[in-house]
Design goal:
This protein has 6 helices and 12 strands. It is an alpha/beta fold. It has a 6-stranded mixed sheet, with helices on both faces.
Length: 219
């Protein structure tokens, strides 16, 4: 582990009533807001130097009812640094804006293989903190006005699995999102649940585990 990641390890205390024990946080997580829910440490679009949107970002005045998990089909890099997470965020934004012709990154949040979380579409982090509305995304047909889109860096359609750091932070981000928006843990889905796609690959098979681990944090 490099020094940068080591400095970001923190001890997270979970609620005794939930039957959980203290655990060592991986990069990309921060303090517990309360006894049960981990508040992720998210690098904003400003922090990673995102391009300005090409149009107006619309904030909806209702809460999302579910989370949709994706993978970005990028390289399964062994570079777990924060700089790599920022470079990946740039790569996704360029792909969505220049390749797809969208106004901004389609996903609300991105989770790197090293366990760093970045804001995707502008305004998503501020809306999540508010807990009453969310930014209209562009990640899943038919779900963009009702779901938060979270994408994991990497390609998981050919047998690869997420590194532990990425998985732990995905759990933390989903739990915090569920807490802020009052989303039941059972309402965490994969992209392929709503369309003809392989996304998010084998992560889709891991969704029952993801729901269970999120439920434990929300207990």
């Amino acid at each position: 582990m490099n020094a940068e990641n080591a400095l970001r390890r923190r001890l997270l205390l979970t609620g005794a009533a939930a039957g959980l024990v203290a655990a060592t946080a991986l990069p990309g997580t921060a303090h517990a807001r309360d006894a049960d829910v981990v508040e992720p440490d998210v690098d904003s679009t400003r922090a990673w130097g995102a391009r300005s949107p090409r149009g107006s970002i619309r904030t909806l005045d209702h809460r999302p009812g579910r989370i949709v998990v994706h993978h970005t089909v990028s390289d399964n890099t062994s570079d777990f640094s924060r700089a790599r997470a920022h470079a990946h965020a740039h790569w996704v934004q360029d792909l969505h804006m220049d390749g797809n012709g969208w106004i901004d990154t389609g996903y609300h949040f991105l989770v790197s293989r090293g366990g760093w979380t970045t804001e995707g579409r502008h305004g998503s982090l501020r809306a999540l903190a508010g807990g009453t509305g969310f930014v209209l995304g562009s990640h899943t047909s038919g779900q963009n006005d009702r779901a938060i889109g979270i994408a994991s860096e990497g390609a998981y359609h050919a047998g690869a699995t997420p590194p532990r750091a990425q998985w732990e932070v995905l759990v933390a981000l989903c739990a915090y999102t569920c807490s802020r928006y009052r989303i039941p843990s059972g309402q965490i889905y994969g992209h392929k649940d709503f369309g003809d796609t392989l996304c998010p690959g084998v992560v889709h098979d891991m969704l029952p585990r993801l729901r269970d681990e999120v439920a434990a944090l929300l207990a």
